[in-house]
Design a protein that fits this description.
By secondary structure, the chain is mostly helical. It is built from ten helices and three strands. The protein is globular. The chain starts with 6 loop residues before the first helix and ends in a 5-residue tail after the last helix. About 25% of the residues are buried. Bound molecules: ligand BIV. The site of ligand BIV has 28 residues, from α3, α4, α6 and α9.
Length: about 300
């Protein structure tokens, strides 16, 4: 497709695709090493009074109809005492999915760092700017790369087995707000609909990392120049390789996804801060998470 695409641009795409393959394991074989997911049943049967083995446990033998509702309240009290005893010794977190999702995000952060380091120009930036770019974009890149596991069929992220299939309810059980998860799922559905080629997917991630408007960059112009090179490559790629009608307005639609990511990023920061404050056990998070998204103590 010369002269639209240069040798250099083709090389750039090859480099990004190789870097992505080295840092995204489509078999998700490492997920078994994370702390296990703990899903609370949506219909908890522990307060079910209709167990055939011990029907009197619910009423404590009470016969007066007026007392029965109060007594069934007693059972809840007993149950909560038991749970209290457990949480005092065991430090039970209110967010059962937090340890697993913390490990998943921590693992993904390391992979994103690996990807960023192989983008031509990244290593040549001063270290401070490398850190600024990574810290500010990493949750956005995680949201982008996760589209590979996202299934629009059932609105969940499918990473191999049933155990590693993440629904909205699972993210809620890590402390995230249900209403604010809807925009993330909408984003995933919209991105999936673009049917990006792998070249476009990796270029979008690279463009996102090299955002020159991230706060406190020292050499904004150098970041801008690298982003410009990546954007031109993306535009040329679409012209040469993406057939109509799906190529129609594809580039501006991809740019819009970058805008969507900004607001998701902002929302995540707020919610993360809340979660890190409310988590029963600080070790539910990881040192890397604390470093990248901040510690409630700092
Ligand atoms: O594709 O509060 C990829 C690798 C695989 C799997 C994968 C899925 C990503 C998901 C599913 C990857 C679980 C919940 C995640 C989601 C992407 C973002 C979301 C990790 C990681 C986040 C953010 C929720 C943001 C919102 C709704 C605005 O690499 C959960 C973040 C959890 C903590 O805040 C506790 C770190």
């Amino acid at each position: 497709c010369r002269p639209q695409m240069s040798e250099e641009q083709e090389q750039l795409i090859a480099t990004l695709i190789e870097a992505h393959h080295k840092t995204y394991d489509s078999s998700y074989s490492d997920f078994g090493q994370f702390r296990p997911p703990v899903r609370k049943d949506e219909f908890d049967s522990s307060d079910d009074c209709s167990m055939p083995e011990a029907p009197t446990d619910c009423s404590f033998g009470s016969s007066t109809p007026g007392e029965s509702s109060m007594n069934s309240g007693n059972l809840g009290l007993l149950a909560s005492f038991e749970n209290f005893g457990q949480s005092a010794s065991n430090m039970t977190s209110p967010f059962s999915m937090l340890p697993h999702l913390s490990d998943l995000v921590s693992y993904s952060i390391q992979k994103v760092i690996g990807f960023a380091k192989s983008i031509p120009g990244f290593r040549e930036l001063n270290t401070e700017d490398q850190i600024v770019l990574l810290k500010s974009s990493v949750i956005e890149i995680i949201m982008l790369r996760s589209n590979e596991s996202f299934s629009s069929e059932d609105n969940s992220w499918v990473c191999g087995s049933e155990e590693f299939k993440y629904s909205i309810s699972d993210v809620t059980q890590a402390g995230h707000n249900m209403e604010l998860l809807e925009p993330l799922v909408k984003f995933q559905i919209g991105l999936k609909k673009l049917n990006l080629h792998e070249a476009e997917h990796v270029l979008l991630m690279a463009i996102c990392i090299f955002s020159p408007d991230r706060p406190s960059l020292l050499e904004r112009e150098r970041v801008e120049a690298i982003q410009e090179r990546l954007s031109e490559t993306l535009r040329a790629y679409i012209v040469c390789n993406h057939p109509p009608p799906s190529s129609h307005l594809l580039y501006p639609k991809m740019v819009q996804k970058l805008a969507d990511l900004r607001s998701l990023n902002e929302e995540h920061s707020k919610q993360y801060l809340e979660i890190s404050r409310e988590a029963g056990d600080p070790s539910d998070l990881t040192p890397l998470l604390l470093e990248v998204f901040g510690s409630p103590l700092s």
